[in-house]
Specification:
The complex is a heterodimer of chains A (340) and B (445).
Chain A (H helix, E strand, L loop, with lengths): L2 H35 L3 H33 L1 H10 L1 H21 L6 H25 L4 E4 L2 E4 L1 H5 L2 H28 L3 H32 L1 H9 L1 H19 L4 H23 L2 E3 L3 E2 L7 H30 L2 H4 L8
Antiparallel strand pairs in A: 1-2, 3-4
Chain B lengths: L4 H40 L2 H35 L1 H33 L8 H30 L5 E3 L2 E3 L3 H5 L4 H29 L5 H35 L1 H8 L10 E3 L2 E3 L4 E3 L2 E3 L2 H7 L22 H25 L9 H27 L4 E3 L3 E2 L10 H29 L16
Antiparallel strand pairs in B: 1-2, 3-6, 4-5, 7-8
Classes of the chains: A mainly alpha (340), B mainly alpha (445).
Family (chain B): Belongs to the cytochrome ubiquinol oxidase subunit 1 family.
Main location (chain B): membrane
Subcellular location (chain B): Cell membrane
Chain lengths: 340, 445
Amino acid sequence: MSLENVGITVLWMFLYGYVIVASIDFGAGFFSYYSFITGREHLVNGVIERYLSPMWEVTNVFLIFFMVGLIGFYPDTAYYYGTALLVPGSIALVLLALRGSFYAFSHYAKSSALYRFLYGATGLFIPASLATVLTISEGGFIDENNGKVTLALDRLLSNPYSWAVVLVAVTSVLYISASFLAYYAKKARDPAAAETLRRFALATALPTIFASLLVFFTLRTHNPGHFERMLDIYPLFLGSFGCFLVAFALQVTRKSYGWAFVWVMLQFLFALFGYGASHLPYLLEPYIKVHDSITSPQMGLALVIGLIAGLCLLIPSLVLLMKLFLFNTKYASGKLSEEP
Amino acid sequence: MNLDQTMLARILTMMTLSFHIIFATLGVGMPLVISIAEFLGIRRGDDHYLQMAKRWSKGYTVTVAVGVVTGTCIGLQLSLLWPTFMKLGGDAIALPLFLETFAFFFEAIFLGIYLYSWNRFSNPWIHWALGIPVLVGSSLSAFFIMTVNAFMNAPQGFKLQDGKIVDVQPILAMFNPATPTKAGHMILSAWATTAFVLACLAAYRMLKGNKQEYVKKALRLTMVLSLVFSSGTALYGDLAGKYLAKHQPEKLAAAEWHFDTGTQASLVLGGVLNEQTHEISYGVKIPYLLSFLATGSPTGEVKGLNEVAKDLQPPLFVHYLFDAMAGIGSYMVLVPLLYFLWTRKRGREVPKGLMRLIVWGGPLAMLAIQLGWVFSEVGRQPWILVGYLKTGASATTSAHVGSMVILFGLLYVFLGVAASRVLLRMFRNNPIPADVDQGREPHVA
């Protein structure tokens, strides 16, 4: 495989990782707020808290990794996206910063209703704003005149496709999050929380599929070329839908929330890789193609070696983290007091 | 000062970095100090040190959170504010940036494990060992990011062809002449500053009348560490000066107001400069010292600023920053020395005056970090990539930098206030457990 393909495949893996772990985190914030105002807080908060404590920092790194890797492999992205996204990027950064620090602060300070609201709201607002970058990558929103790069915000905001993407981002976040938390609550031997979260998962499942279809149809008008390439690999998307059906059936029949979540993960794996593969060769239409990667072969080699060495270190560490916290029934059910 | 896009982008970058570096310094130093305390606690079976490690980790959870989010900010602001630099230099610095995120990832995973598994293992050494990857990860990520900064000061390992960087030798670019001194000086000063900040907290408690054995031990441990790390920092500072003399003479010349190339150059301490006549008033001149510090020989030749074209000279006010940084550095060596001279005799109470000096050492050490960084960064102006790309040519062309300065300014004020309040409340509401001091059976043999 050529360097540029290795690069984009690895980056896409990390983006997928981010989509999963960040969705759980963002959705948890929303559910936590929602159950607070509907008086069901005691049901789900313990579970959410115990999952997030050791995980929130790791979640953040997935995103940084994706961004740094993107700029590392494709320096042109820094130029175009960097210049065009100063304002929206900065706003997303501020929200991420507030949310990340809030989480650590709230451990030691009493959380107020306002704080809970902000924590829940940012959980929906951040994925919506991050997803906008995917919209922009389809082309048509960045202009370059006399070497000056600008973002056409008015066109972006009035475009049906960009709103479809926002919708799919928000619904997926809630759906992935509820599916995982239902499993985690079950693992924690907390049937009431598991039942509540299962209902959340079922309630968000259909809107997610509806929003995905909306993205399909609006993309057809916005970027016919991309739409054609998507049709070429339609089995991937059918596969994604099939996984959804299996997960849905498992959740409806209360068979196994763990397996249901595995199928949800597969559903998004197929969808995201299908989307990514059909997006190529463009990283940003029409300015950056995947072939415009770094030019020095030595640097390319060094990056790949660094990547392999890094993954050898990361994967066992992640497994250890999951063993100690996610898949440890005693920890999940709150029987180990872990605070320093 | 001309408030154009470049200047605004510089202001925003400086704001983010100065705020981030407070937490980054602690991020590099805390894992080491916590690990040492836990080691002593287990080794000696002394509950005091274990409590220390736990209390410090608690506070560290809050500072690390702010460190992570502001680090995310600067990571992305590099591309948002300096797109042309990232496009040109991205080819050359991709590897260390990439490795830095790996080190950070590694640190993040084990930090989660370390913080939430204090009582998980029956063998206490297992928990201690889980802190090692945190320590390694934080130091490595500091090292990698320093190689990027060093590269901007001493670019090498590539060819410039039609305004594009080609033929990059990643290892050569990473291990450029500036890397060893920069990384060493930064990591050691982060350790020294962290030790001093913790010493400041212990001394503050003692001044407030807390004479628990725990506080005394905390002060003693942090004083030992301060002395060792501050001395190491000073040593590295000397090497960094020699590096400057050899590779970036204009930075050293501006720092020392050394205008004419010459042998037997003298060092100027303090003083006020008349920028027109280059006359220095009120300064203390020490003959031969600059030559000695720069070259190792009192008659060595030191390049003067006049040899550099006017528009390529760094601003001359960096002298004040340099002197203040070096002055605080000396303070950080002298105060622990005084402390140990005084406590040589067993049981002698440390006088209040000395205790106050230790308390002041915490904030001063943080100030020195800031001054050192401003000196280093402003000292390479007008270049962003010394010798290749000027700062003015690489800033974003977006018209909204000004409002972003305000937006992030508000964010940092909020984060600073909130973090301080949370930390204060946390330690007020959780006094040092009294039972630590009642000779409780240590739970580890």
